[in-house]
Amino acid sequence: MVPGCRAAVSDAVTRLKLFVPLLAFAVLAPLLYWGLGRDPGAMPTALKGKPIPAFTLPSLTTPDAQLDQALFAGQVSLLNVWATWCPSCRIEHPYLMHLAEQGVPVFGLNYKDEGEPARRWLKDLGNPYREVIFDASGRLGLDLGVFGAPETYLVDSRGIVRARHVGVLDERVWQKEFAALYQSLQNPEER
To answer: Are 51 and 160 in contact (CB under 8 A)?
Structure first.
C-alpha cells in the first residue's frame, strides 16, 4: 500500500471510531425512552389466560387445613401476595379490607414469611382474606412468577388468571386495571 494512502485509511478509521458512541446512543435512546414510559406496576404475566398453578399448601388461618387451586373455582376473586416483611403491604392492607367489605372475594398468599407474625398481623390489622395460603418456601410464588410483595392477580371463576398488578393495590389501580374486568367476569353473558 502507498504510504500516503495508508495514512488516509488510518485517518478515516480514526474518524469513524468517533461516531461509534453516537451510533450506539442512536440505537439505545429509543429503547430507553420506550422503557421509561411504561408503568412498572403493569407487568405482564406469563400466566395470563392460564390456570393458577397446581399447589397443595397449608392454610395460615385454618389449623390443619390444606389448600389447593380448587380454592378459586366458582367465583371471580383476587389473589393477593403479601408478607409481614413488606412495608408496601401495610400501606395496601386498608384497601384490601375495603374491597372485602364490598364483597370482593380476596384470597391471600403469605409469601416467604413466618406463620406466627403473619397471624398476628391479621389479628392486629384485620383479615380481608377468605383464606390465606401459607407459602413459607415461596414455591407457589415462584410458579406464579412473583417478583415480590405486594402483587395482586385477578382470577376468574374457572381459576384462570386474567390480570396482574405488581405493587400496591389502591383505588386508582383498582379502577384502572381491575374494576371493569372484574365486573365483566361477574356477568359471563356480557363477555
So the answer is: yes
pLDDT in tens, 19-70: 556 555 555 545 445 445 444 444 556 789 999 999 999 999 999 999 999 9
DSSP 8-state class, residue 55 = -
Q: Closest Cα partner for 125 from 179, 82, 76?
A: 82
pTM over 0.70: yes
Tell me the three cell numbers of residue 142. 415462584
Backbone φ and ψ of 46, nearest 5°? -65, -15
Asked if 76 contacts 179 with a C-beta cutoff of 8 angstroms, the reply is no
Give the H or E element holding residue 68. Answer: strand 66-68
Give the span between the Cα atoms of 73 and 8, in whole angstroms. 75
Pairing assessment for the beta strands 106-111 and 131-135 based on DSSP bridges:
parallel
Cβ atoms of 139 and 145 closer than 8 Å: no
Confidence (pLDDT) at 19: 59
Average pLDDT over all residues of the chain:
86
